[in-house]
Model the fold of this input.
Amino acid sequence: MSSLLDLLTSAATRAADYRQEVAEREVFPNDVDLDAVRTALSSLPEGPTAASVVIDELAGAVEPALVATTGPRYFGFVVGGALDAATAADILTSGWDQPAFNAFTSPGAAVVEDVAGGWLKDLLGLPPDASFGFVTGGQGANTVALAAARHHVLAEAGWDVEQRGLLDGPAVRVVANGERHATIDRALRLLGLGAGALEPVATDAQGAIDVADLTRVLASAPDGPTIVCLQAGNVNSGAFDDFVAAIAAARDHGAWVHVDGAFGLWAAACPGTRHLTAGMEAADSWATDGHKWLNVPYDVGYSFCAHPHAHAATMSYTAAYLTGQGEAGLRAPGDYVLESSRRARGFATWAALRQLGRSGVAELVERCCVLARRFAEQLSTIDNVSIANDVVLNQVLVSYGDDARTDRVIESVQRSGECWMGATTWHGRRFMRISVSSWRTTEADVDRSVAAISAANESS
Ligand SMILES: Cc1ncc(COP(=O)(O)O)c(C=O)c1O
Done:
């Protein structure tokens, strides 16, 4: 095989074959010999190797060690399955290899990101004039949004954090749902605000913020630069904070409100779940993912900000050799993210949204929620099994008796190869954590998984 066309066709064929058979693969490669994989890949040759040989070696060695996340019975973490059009667009993205910094480095990437960002705001019910950045995921989205928040609350206190740093500046309070995602803490570490300085707020039985406690915490210190972090979709239970009440409480203290909706923000795109996000559009910043519920291939997330100036002032930079910021009236993607040289993530997002359309996005969200409830309904009829959360979204927490037994059942299910669910500790107890996030999952996949779980439950 000599030509580039042959090489790329063969790689695409491999990817397509993999995806076509992935539904019947063992969902987790339990018995793969990782030493053998390493050995097959670890000799760095002295000289060049033909590209076709490189790809054969790589795919041959790695495919047995892959996890079937693009298959229909992977329910771990919150992992989407990569839509066909988005996957193909991602292949094109690699082929085109555009540094999506501004309209000079890639006019095409700048336009597509602009269009896709507008579609995202429309679907998610965010303010049309909000700024946005295409980042690497929820972590990147939370970090960028909280950096903009840091800029804004300190600027209001007369402090230019970008110039002067944090030392000797006014203290910034960060008040957050006690069950926030750990990426909020990591963002605070990176931003110099300090995870230890975070003031946690009590939650209700489902892990949503207790607004009375939020009010108490906010009132416990004099007003000053303050950021309140709320959540659309608790990573365990799927619970939503009460945005109307929580944002009103935050506004009483002049706080910036950030909403982490890595997967839960997508509830806003579906008429059946939209009520869960009521009021969130009044926040100052929002974070969500593309590679979770939108089923765009890894990696992409989106950071939105109701204060475009704060967003750009925090993230943008320039240098003598760089030109083109705001060129031809085009938004410069690099002004809203951490990276300069960056993948053109807009192409795959645009393709996912174009493939699904408005109704397809809504149906995807709705279907996953219906299937999550199907899991809960069927599992709750089994002896020893109880569902710990109100299944309001796509997350189900399941107990199989005491913690040790629950862990045994989870391990047995993971070893079955039929499906894969992770484990978590929530409110002091161990649970199987089921997240239905893939466009490929059907009722039959849920039923097949429930059968595998029942068998594991009986043998544990
Ligand atoms: C609520 C929430 N926030 C943030 C994240 C982090 O997202 P990512 O893994 O894309 O960085 C997750 C991941 O599950 C999440 O559920």
About this structure: The longest strand covers residues 429-435. The chain has three domains: 4-65, 90-351, 361-459. Residues 4-65 form one domain.
